[in-house]
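User: I've been going back and forth on whether these two constructs are worth ordering. Before I decide, could you fold them both?

Assistant: Sure. I'll take them in the order you sent them. The first construct and its structure tokens:
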Amino acid sequence: MTAEIKALESNNTWTLVPLLVGKQCISCRCFLGSLKYFLGLGIAKSSKGIVPTPRKYALSLLEDTGFLGCKPSSLPMDPNLKLSMLNGELLLDPLMYRRLLGSLMYLTISRPDITFDVNKLSQYMQNPRKPHLYVMHHLLQYIKGTLGQGLHFPTSNSFNLSAYADADWGGWLDTRRSTFGSCVFLGDALISWK
């Protein structure tokens, strides 16, 4: 506790003052242990850094959808695939598609590798069709094959800020809208992505 107080004093977060005459000091010590899970993410700590991993959440998602025993895939989506609003038969239960897409959106908190694909699938949430569901199933197979992946925040890091961006001009077949993606690194740690 002494080291923590000294650290707070050294960066001017707190200023300690003497206790006023006639007043009593109230203290509360509570140690909950090291962090294991936060918002559905497993937190793995080592001397090299912290890795928030959605393994438990992804496993429960795969179990709920019946994809726990599926064949894993090495790619989240076929890079040459062009989806459309009009191709394919409409889904009988679009609510199931939307619910699964919401679960995948939550998974993008710690899995930037699926962000583009989830964004692409969310463009068809109004009237999902069977080809969109097949792409979602393929994405679940990719998640099955990459359960151990997550972000890594190293303990020793530089303060170099790097940003990268890419765009696909007019790549959406239905409206000819563009698709844009970006990522920002602080040293070696990915801190923002879209």
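The second construct, handled the same way:
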Amino acid sequence: MSTRFTTTNNAPDEMNRSAYASPIYITLLSVTTTITNLCLGAITMSALLFIHAFSLPSSMKQHIYLCGIGYMILMAQAIQSLNPHSGWARLVKYQDRRVVHWMLQIVASILVVVGSIIRMMDVTSNFSTAHGILGLIALILTILSMVGGIVSAYSSKLNINPAYMRIAHSCIGSLTLSAAFLCLLFAFNTTFRAGMGNKNANLAIAMTVIGLVGTLTSPCLDVVRRMIRNVRSN
């Protein structure tokens, strides 16, 4: 079964975004998205180049491949896919973007769960470092985010307020990505710094921060907008 993409944004929720429809806002968001994606691509390539520059255990290489692509590429793009003014998403209907969001989230979650388990099975002292602890938190939040997404999708059938479920799902998703990127920051500050030097490590850390902030800007604004609207409606 194939999904047919069309070039209109006609979701009822998006038609009422008059406060966000100004050309200045759209331009700023587009520039932010472009810079964000450049940084995401750069830090992903930095991590992948690092594992081929040195002789590392197989489990570590698999861990970096799976979790790096899962969190930094797929999950970040899944979050951006729901932004109607973000890159390719501007050309796709809201319902089609939800399909893309689900597909990216499912694949990303599978990759990071497998990648995390592979490393945890090979390293017994994994949870004695900040990187390991944050990685475990990110893994737990990833699972919670998927469960929350399923509940949010069927909230109307479960007699749960869908507006509150979307807010909760957005918050958990943002926390998941934050934990994953913080985990990456500690990896860049320790192992990556030791192998690639201070300048490369500092650059990678800066791009990671920019990538995280840029990715979460739109969902955070959307959560605030939804909360304000719910308060006014009540």
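Notes on the second construct follow. The radius of gyration is 19 Å. Helices lie at 12-15, 23-53, 58-80, 94-122, 130-153, 162-196, 198-233.
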